[in-house]
Amino acid sequence: MGEELNDPFSSETDNPIDDHLIHDVSFVEVEHPPNDITDTDAKSRRLFDIPHSLPTKQGLARIVTVTNQKGGVGKTTSVINIATHLAMRGARVLVVDCDAQGNCASGLGIDKSKTKITTKDVILTPSISIQARHATAVEGLHLIVGDHNLVGVEESLSAQLGRERRLVEALAILRPHYDLILIDTAPSMSIVSVNALTASDGVLIPVQTEYLALEGVALLMGTIQEVRRILNHSLGVDAVIMTMHSPTLLNTQVAGHLRETFGDLVLEPPIRRNIRLAESPSQGVPIQFHAPQSHGGQDYSLLSSELEALWFPGGLKNE
Questions:
Q1: Which residues are CB-neighbours of 55 under 8 A, at least 6 positions away?
Q2: How far is CA 166 from CA 93, 203, 254, 265, in A?
Q3: In what order do the strands lie in the sheet containing 62-66?
Q4: Where are the beta strands (DSSP E) in 93-210?
Q5: What is the CATH number of the domain that holds 282?
Q6: Which range has the worst mean pLDDT, 122-136, 190-204, 218-232?
């Protein structure tokens, strides 16, 4: 017992390894400083095929979907505050909440529980869109409320023809009465989000200046291309806006990467992280009413002015 097994690959008669064949290898670690990414040095570097949007037909509201397939990038906050700023400047603005969370209502001080007609009803029965609008505390700003019932729209529309164009029909009735219609969407490409893109002239993409920021944008570009090819040949990207920004090295590098990728589609300034922006929805008012002089208030004011020049190059007729 305990018989030792012989190793066929070893032998006492093996030739020893010559020491002179062994060489010590030394490694020298060199630390390269990070690239100094600045606002002015960024050059456009196309990673996506980005279709640009076309001008709006005269006499009709421009319809813009605010979307990103990555969640938590500040879509709803951007919709509320951009819509408020432009309404205060004299634009007639309608916000259509296509997110089942329904946070646009909370941010604009509307009680969802008292709402009788919601976005779901409008999609299922487009002819009632006129009755679905709610006035807000901001003069000239109306809202079609979204709520949890939007989750069931997919099943309700599954057997209906033309289900991707229901919002087109609903908004066609309203377009002559507004200058701008902003659509808030969920971070998923459901039939509701496809309806929003099919009805839109352009897309506004909020991107958080954090690692993997382009992940959701890459998915979204593919979706935009599909919707453009099949459902809405004029759909394009209006602008990319940077949100939840901090003056850290990582945030600065991501912002520089976005500027390189999207070029002049990126609008300035980035929206800085700001506690006042987080507080304002709990007060049921936009940042312009809650803390207009805060970083968030100032940033959204400047950004909205850039969007005003983009969307209304001839100026607001109601100004």
A1: none
A2: 20, 18, 37, 29
A3: 133-135, 141-144, 93-98, 180-185, 62-66, 202-208, 236-243, 266-267
A4: 93-98, 133-135, 141-144, 180-185, 202-208
A5: 3.40.50.300
A6: 218-232
Give the number of other Cβ atoms within 10 Å of residue 28's Cβ.
4
Question: What SS3 class is residue 33?
Answer: coil
- Rounded Cα gap, residues 104 and 112, in angstroms: 10
The identity of residue 216, as a single letter, is: G
In a domain, 34, yes or no: no
Tokens of 170: 């609903």
9 within some domain = no
What is the DSSP track for 273-291? Answer: --HHHHHHHHHTS-HHHH-
pLDDT tens, position by position, 231-275 = 999 999 999 999 999 888 989 998 998 999 899 999 999 999 989
Q: What percent of the chain has pLDDT over 90?
A: 61
189: closest CA among 175, 203, 178? 203
- Domain extent for 245: 45-311
The pTM score is 0.84
Q: Cα-flanking dihedrals φ and ψ of residue 83, to 5°? A: -60, -40
Count the domains in the chain: 1
In a domain, 141, yes or no: yes
Q: Tell which residue, 77, 42, 73, has the closest CA to residue 299.
A: 77
142-163 residue pLDDT tens: 999 999 999 889 889 888 889 9
d(CA 287, CA 301): 10
Q: How far apart are CA 30 and CA 288, in angstroms?
A: 50
DSSP string for residues in 207-229:
EESSTTHHHHHHHHHHHHHHHHH
Q: Domain for residue 61, yes or no?
A: yes
